[in-house]
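User: Hi! I have a protein structure encoded as tokens and I'd like to know what sequence might fold into it. I'm fairly new to this, so please keep things simple.
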């Protein structure tokens, strides 16, 4: 832990941060419902006994979340959908579900604290490029966390230059991250690599002061361990998630929480960015940034309940290190 360049496995990071994270959760009213549990002084060093106690607190925390989730009113799906003229076939073609999912990747992560920074909501229109949008938006966030400079990067470059995906016909965020890491491609800014309405020939990298490369990434299943997603969001930054978008087409407001079935979780056809969470209410939720324009949902955002792998949100998570 003496070097900023030292790599940590996900398991090591969990051990390092769990104590800090749980102590912060103890401040939140919903966790204080577990009043019978006596937590140690937050200034003490984390011991094995502390970790066991805090894991018990986490377990109770998610039991409370599940109870409150079932008691909370479902989201409003009466919005005027941008997909109102789409047939089911049209919508399935619009989604970016890859033909074949690659194997899971679990790579090292760097130890670094973060803050929430996000760029504007984009609109993918009829291009199934949400996998590239989610990757670029998370790169933008992680770059801003590292440098303090919020800058837009090129989605078009991801479509033009990556032969392993299908451009506007769909792709996979994990596979795109693998390509970025393997090739050490410099991710160019929007100013250096302009957007287009169609696929173009891959342009050469321009001389620019912004030299962004993916140094590491994680792609894994966090079903039944969503507390780790809260941990990452709290102390590192936004995440990429694959979800079942079929129930979300008419979303208007509220918290999506009644799509917990295994069938729902297995149909992962859309990529989004999880930028944070809200634990203040009776039904804690993820704050999710979508790519269907500002007219969708809550000015382009939606809320998905924490716990239960709602819409498959925890099943295929990606994280990026720059």
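Assistant: Happy to help. Inverse folding works backwards from shape to sequence: for each of the 322 positions I chose a residue that suits the local structure. Here it is:
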């Amino acid at each position: 832990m003496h070097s900023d360049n030292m790599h940590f496995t996900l398991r090591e990071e969990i051990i390092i941060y769990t104590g800090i994270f749980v102590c912060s959760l103890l401040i939140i009213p919903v966790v204080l419902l577990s009043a019978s549990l006596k937590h140690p002084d937050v200034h003490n060093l984390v011991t094995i006994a502390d970790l066991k106690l805090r894991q018990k607190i986490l377990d109770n925390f998610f039991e409370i979340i599940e109870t409150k989730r079932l008691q909370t009113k479902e989201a409003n799906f009466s919005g005027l959908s941008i997909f109102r003229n789409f047939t089911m076939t049209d919508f399935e073609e619009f989604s970016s579900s890859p033909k074949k999912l690659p194997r899971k990747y679990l790579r090292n992560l760097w130890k670094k604290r973060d803050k929430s920074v996000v760029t504007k909501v984009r609109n993918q229109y009829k291009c199934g490029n949400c996998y590239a949008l989610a990757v670029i938006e998370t790169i933008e966030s992680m770059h801003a966390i590292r440098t303090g400079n919020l800058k837009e990067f090129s989605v078009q470059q991801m479509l033009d230059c990556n032969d392993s995906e299908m451009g506007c016909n769909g792709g996979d965020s994990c596979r795109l991250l693998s390509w970025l890491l393997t090739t050490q491609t410099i991710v160019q800014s929007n100013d250096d690599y302009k957007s287009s309405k169609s696929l173009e020939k891959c342009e050469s990298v321009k001389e620019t002061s912004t030299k962004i490369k993916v140094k590491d990434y994680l792609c894994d299943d966090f079903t039944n361990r969503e507390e780790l997603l809260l941990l990452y969001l709290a102390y590192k930054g936004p995440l990429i998630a694959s979800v079942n978008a079929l129930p979300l087409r008419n979303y208007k407001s509220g918290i999506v929480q009644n799509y917990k079935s295994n069938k729902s979780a297995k149909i992962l056809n859309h990529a989004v960015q999880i930028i944070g969470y809200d634990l203040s209410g009776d039904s804690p939720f993820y704050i999710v940034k979508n790519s269907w324009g500002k007219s969708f949902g809550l000015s382009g955002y939606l809320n998905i309940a924490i716990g239960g792998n709602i819409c498959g949100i925890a099943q295929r998570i990606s994280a990026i290190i720059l």
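A useful reference point when you look it over: Residues 48-71 form the longest helix (24 residues). Feel free to ask if any position seems puzzling.
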